[in-house]
Each structure stands twice: as structure tokens, then as C-alpha cells.
């Protein structure tokens, strides 16, 4: 009997996704009536200039915010775990991930207005780096909890300074966790809509904003194809994060 609610929940969650993927290969123009197998909507997707622009903006934001988040998140995790242990600081470091997107988006928009920052790709990049840093720090701290701090102590005892110890001992040990955190930050940035909607300029829409503007007039097979591509990219990134996180925990 316990499997029935679980099965119904899985059906409710995943059957619509399966329908979207299947209908992305539909030869007809209707997103709901099957007219045969075809890849033409993926060709239409590649030729759509609006989608290409949104994809380019998304990749720029995701790559930039991931690079910034990886550096800041790694340093934040090391600082909290090795130098400044504080429950309050731990809570503040994870707050951007826990806060509802709408709250974080409004707060960032208010801050940009306060400092009179013109909205554009860089404003979205900085906004995504906020929650990306928290995500990277959480993953790296998981890796730090399984490492032996005596290795760093031995390095310092042998005459290495703090930077050398971090670069030659700490960072190589944290590498699987750092890569997993970077992949997670990249995935979150690619899929994020609410914060980008509030902090992007009118001439710099990201791909989720482009999708939103398109689905307002109805779901088309082209949208199904785009959703399928994003699903494949996200699924692959999540599998990589899980694999690297597991690897980080076993080494």
C-alpha cells in the first residue's frame, strides 16, 4: 500500500516531462497531437535568433558567475571550516540558498537601485554569483569535513607558508568538491529565472526569460525541443555533481 502514493507522486511529477520530450519529436505543428517522428523542431530551434541570443547571454552569465562563485565559495568554505568557526556566520553563508528567489531578487534589485547600477548581463552575473557562492561553499565544506587537517599542519611545520599550504595541499585535496560545486553553480545559473527576470536589462534577456516570453503565447513544439535540450544538459550536470560529490566523500 505504501508504494501506491509514491507511484502516483512519480506519475504526477514525471509524466508531463516525458510528454514534453516525446512531443519535441513530433512532425506536426501541434504540441499535443502526434503526427509522426521528426527532428525538424530542433533545426528550427537552432535557427531561431532570439533563442540563440538568450542562450549566448545565459552561457556568459553562467560561466562568469560560476568562475566567481567557485573562487569565493571555496575561500569561504575554507575560512569557515579552518579559521573562523561561527554558527552565525555559517547561517549567513547558506542564507542565499535558503531564501526564496523572489526575496533575494527584490533585495538585489533594491541594492542595484541604491548604488545606481545600470541593469545588464553583469548585474545578472553578480546576482547569480550570490547564491552560487553559497552553493559552492556548502559542497566544499562537505569535502572539508572528510579531510585530515593534520596534512595542512604538517605542511606548515615543514616551513610552508599559508598560501603554499593552501595551493599545494588544501586545494588538491578539495578538487573533487570544488568541481562538483562549480557544476552545481553552473546548473543553477542556467536554470534560474526569477532573479534574472528582476536584475536583467531589457536588452540582455537570458534563455529562461526568452522561454517565458514565448510560452505566454502558447506552448509550441519548438518550446518542447528547447525544454528537452535543457533537461538533457541539467540531467547530465546533476549526474556529474553527484558522481564528484560521492568521489569527494570517499577519498
From TrEMBL:
Alphabetical GO biological process terms: transmembrane transport
UniProt xrefs under PROSITE patterns: ABC_TM1
Gene3D superfamilies with a match to the protein in the record: MetI-like
Topology relative to the membrane: Multi-pass membrane protein
Domain ABC transmembrane type-1 residues, every copy: 55-241
UniProt cross-references to InterPro entries, sorted A to Z: Bact_Polyamine_Transport, MetI-like, MetI-like_sf
Superkingdom of origin: Bacteria
Annotated transmembrane regions: 7-27, 59-80, 92-115, 121-140, 174-198, 223-241
GO terms under cellular component: plasma membrane
Location of the protein in the cell: Cell membrane
Alphabetized UniProt keyword annotations: Cell membrane, Membrane, Transmembrane, Transmembrane helix, Transport
Major localisation: membrane
Record-stated family: Belongs to the binding-protein-dependent transport system permease family. CysTW subfamily.
Name of protein: Spermidine/putrescine transport system permease protein
